[in-house]
Design a protein that fits this description.
40% helix
Length: 481
Amino acid sequence: MVQFETVIGLEVHAQLKTNTKIFCGCSTQFGKEPNENVCEVCSGMPGVLPVLNEKVMEYAAKMGLATNCTINQKSIFARKNYFYPDLPKGYQISQFELPICEHGHLDISYEDKSGVLCKKRIGVTRIHMEEDAGKNIHSVAENASFVDLNRTGVPLIEIVSEPDMRNAEEAVAYLKSLRSILLYLDICDGNLEEGSFRCDVNISVRPFGQEEFGTRAELKNINSFRNVHKAIHYEVARQIDLIEDGEKIIQETRLYDADKGTTHSMRGKADAHDYRYFPDPDLVPLVIADEWLAEWQAAQPELPAERKVRFEEDFKISEDDAELLTAEKDIADYYEAVLDSYNEPKKVVNWIKGDFMREQNQSEVGLSECKFKPEMMAKLVEMVDKDVISNKIGKDIFNEIFTEGLDPAKFVKDKGLEQNSDSSSLEAAVDKVLADNPKEVEAYKGGKKKLVSFFMGQVMKETKGQANPGIVSKMIQQKLS
């Protein structure tokens, strides 16, 4: 049986965090009433000229620097011609032959299906600037379609990868890495649901060993990393089934249906020549001065890959933990802020990646609005570490103090939850547990040493989780020896 290889390339559109649109002064604010953020320029009225927003150029170049691209200090805007209701000019201003960034790469790491850590370098073909299109709104009740031009002219960068990915895991890892860089640069909010970070997935399959690419399909309408993973798996299986049945793959654009987990045909996939690109006569070639480029390079922040290495070296934490913490800038910032108050990196990371991230993921607010401040997290870790409270008590109270933003020290004192290290009271609890469980005591003495965990649990239950586990463990073993 023929074995097939998957070939994946991604086109990522990132909406830039500018206050105004790319070629006019209209606001880019999301959620306004339809056609509120519109003027003569972005609505395509005749007799008006576009003027480039300089921030767009700066942000595009910074992303290029972060992905190891060559920055073209002379680039050209082009008109991409096609007809669609949400494109008022009948063309989109983009870049084609001379984009602002080219020939970059991004190093990714991910776990394969068997849990093995894999690393790979993905080529970045180009990054170019362009304006977004509007949005079609279809009303079944009114049996009509409407066009909202608020999004028209919102600045985008399109990041085009080489077809270097071979499975869904690599594609998702690449997307997560790109999004992380955009957030660290603070040039895109990375919101998939609102469409400010979206991707088109180009997929083809070919027999292993064949150099020629197969016919590709482009997948659109994918608004989460999980759906990217699912869509790739479905589309690969669909294409292989067609080939094995003797049918041909059609080059087309397909939409992903998240409810059904399937893709369906939207339209035939166009090639570059179908868009009849030509230089935009209303915009002069863009020339980036040496001093601008040097200034942007100097202003680059510490990026995820660099921060990951620093966390491993300075805090002596594992590569996996460093990867997890630095993937989201807010989490990495929070972690370092906790360490400013209690410098125990390994103990803090266990709380961050466990209880903290679980509660944060379940909450409906961003980390910037989190009530549980870093100094509170630091105090909780310190109290557990110094046996003021048990680890169990810390975990039991975490949801409440996290949600309400409560001071752990005051909460523990008010509730009387301090850990019990009094030998006489603990000995009484241990004696009671051993007396109540004679069969388990005999089994322990007969060689079942793992029963010490059972006795520990019973003592914790007896003391409502407040017993000092270190003292209790030694006491149990002494009494049973």
